[in-house]
From TrEMBL:
Transmembrane segments: none annotated. Keywords: Acyltransferase, Repeat, Transferase. The keyword Transport does not apply. This is Transferase. InterPro entries: Hexapep, Hexapep_transf_CS, Hexapeptide_acetyltransf, Trimer_LpxA-like_sf. It comes from the Bacteria. The keyword Nucleotidyltransferase does not apply. PANTHER family: SIALIC ACID SYNTHASE-RELATED (PTHR23416). GO terms for molecular function: acyltransferase activity.
Length: 212
């Protein structure tokens, strides 16, 4: 065998060692960050990479059993990857159920974002329960900008839902049980149980024949 073959094998071996080490390192650092942010969590979570957390002292973040996340460019090689962001403003609540897996997502919560059990959320998906800015230009364009009239509404993702990568989920949306959202969708309208939706804006495609 050629020298390059042995170099490639050594390189692959180093990658295995790195990723196994990263899992341990990620768990230790993330556990510390969870405690600093007052997160209620189970110690059985699996993390690759370090998430970014900003949980207000009067906010709440709860995570169920079997949580799995990939965070950052070395642990989510699907393009446009980033660290996971979990942000809860004053009085806001993020709730993640059991057996949930996410990759490079951003959850920005000003009201409540609830994710059920057995949910899978693809790379670079963002979930916003707020408009961030007033829809009234007179208010929005003040200097400094005023947050008067900024609207927030809860987002709910029901058990068994699957969200394709690069999806944007906006305020007031409920995604039904076992429903599927196609990659790259923009969801601002609630989706019933057991359906497939996709597009910008997301529209009904078909019934979810795998569960119905």
């Amino acid at each position: 065998m050629s020298l390059i073959h042995y170099i490639r094998k050594a390189y692959r071996g180093m990658r295995v060692v790195y990723y196994n080490s990263a899992r341990v390192y990620s768990h230790i650092v993330t556990t510390f960050k969870f405690h600093l942010n007052g997160v209620e969590f189970n110690s059985d979570f699996v993390g690759f990479g370090i998430p970014i957390l900003d949980i207000n002292m009067e906010g709440k973040f709860t995570i169920g059993k079997g949580f799995w996340f990939n965070s950052g460019k070395y642990h989510a090689m699907g393009g446009r990857q980033q660290q996971c962001y979990f942000v809860a403003a004053k009085g806001a609540e993020i709730v993640i159920g059991d057996n949930v897996g996410v990759t490079s997502i951003a959850i920005i919560c000003h009201s409540k974002i609830a994710i059920g059990n057995n949910v899978k959320i693809g790379i670079n998906t963002v979930i916003y329960d707020t408009d961030f800015h007033s829809l009234d230009a007179r208010i929005r364009n003040r200097v400094p900008e005023s947050i008067d009239g900024v609207k927030s509404k809860p987002v709910t993702i029901m058990d068994g839902a699957f969200i394709g990568g690069h999806t944007t989920i906006l305020k007031g949306v409920t995604i039904g049980k076992n429903s599927i959202v196609g990659a790259g969708s923009v969801v601002f309208k609630s989706i019933p149980d057991e359906q497939v939706w996709a597009g910008n804006p997301a529209v009904f495609i078909k019934e979810n024949s795998y569960t119905s």
